[in-house]
Description:
By secondary structure, the protein is of the alpha/beta class. The protein contains 16 helices and 19 strands. The radius of gyration is 25 Å and the shape is elongated.
Amino acid sequence: MKVALLQLNTTVGDLDGNARLIREGVKNAGPSDLVVTSEMSLLGYPPRDLLMDSELVRRSWEVLGQLAQELKGHPPVLVGIPEQNPRDVGRPLFNSAALLQNGSAVTTFHKTLLPTYDVFDEDRYFEPAVGAQILELGGLTLGISICEDIWNDRDFWMRRRYHTDPVEELVRAGARCILNLSASPFTVGKQLHRQAMLGNMARKYAVPFLYVNQVGGNDDLVFDGRSCAFGPDGRLAARARGFQEDLVVVDLGEMRGRVAEDDFAPESEIWRALVLGTRDYVLKCGFKSVLLGLSGGIDSALTAAVAAEALGPDNVLGVMMPSPYSSRGSIEDSELLVRNLGIRTMTIPIQRIMHSFQEELHPAFQGFGPDVTEENIQARIRGNLLMALSNKYGSMLLTTGNKSELAVGYCTIYGDMSGGLAVISDVPKTMVYRVARWLNARRPVIPESVLTKPPSAELRPGQADQDSLPPYEVLDEILRHHIEEHQSSEEIIARGFDPETVGRILRLVKVAEFKRKQAAPGIKVTDRAFGSGWRMPIASRAAWNGSV
């Protein structure tokens, strides 16, 4: 039997567009006995509360029926789709895979394990399957699983989330091959973990494992594709390309297919995820171009490089807004970056605007000395100008803050936080430098002085980030232990960090929550981002030194 793994970039809610992708993919699959798409491939993943729209669910089945007719005469196809639960008890839908064969949807298979952690909330919508989901096709017994169903092997995980193991049940029911329709979001390093898990299960049960993953960006999530197949000996037999659409045909008899080359270096993975996530977010939201403020610093430089790669230099506008505190070096660095990237540019000095603010606010500010208020006004002037350009040109404004700054509130709400997409908001500052250096080693675009000068917002004379924060190497390690590893202040201090520094940083994380709630969506690349998987209260009296 030959199985085609169809790795598509679907758009949430675009039933006709997604059906077209599936139809064209099936017709391009060549000689095969079965074509498998990803989880929720017809509706797009994650549909979130669109699943509460009963008319959209009904319409998805209408489009599925049309697709089945159009694919009559082609190999059977497994298509991911939400399915109404006909019973009067339980959640209203099933997360299903429909088998299209001979012009109709002949049967469906349901997802068993419904994740409710991090970015997932599937128990909100779906009823779990009961029993093994088995497909008899071409004399072979196939076990059908959907995404989370394969992530609960007792011999791979030290602690399992669920009491049942669908794969174990499938093998017990006679499955001689496991198929998995997935929409598994990218995080750095995850693919090697996936491959280890799938290879272990294939070897353990002595059956082939075929995994089909969605590719593309949908809101804050990026899906890296990398659909793959493993033989009963646990050997990697096929793998689709990462971060782009692909089609791989796997011969189950010889357990042979194409293994695409890949680069699992964190810098490479993060760069490709940012480019794909930015491109899809901008285009799927209906925009064609973007703009951003250029400060001469590393964050705006990397964001500009990502945007130019994602959308083409002609579709990126870099805006320089020098103030009296902007150094000549920063202006020159921005000008060199613009030339290296080939993006469009504009300069709007803000000195006169700052002076007018000072004059109008002078009576109200009498008796108060200069402080962060004036710095914030400067950032908000820039934010207003950028939003005005965004409105006038119909371009999406990209914000340029990194994860380290967003974590501790080292950013100005309604200022540098203004925009439609926070491209690097899940990239810690130290990783920003690593990705920039990785990029420069391949194509020098970011001026060397940007990589070597002390980071500064240049909101006052001689300002440096380290005036307010510990060195980023220290800050990022504290944040990683706290945010991604859920460690308390006591656990972090036990690792050798200064107690006063740890206490101050964890307090800043807590009090900046109101800012993050109003931040633009960002692209998730780490295990825990400040996005749909971060659900912290704002008004809380929980001890700020506790774990999160």
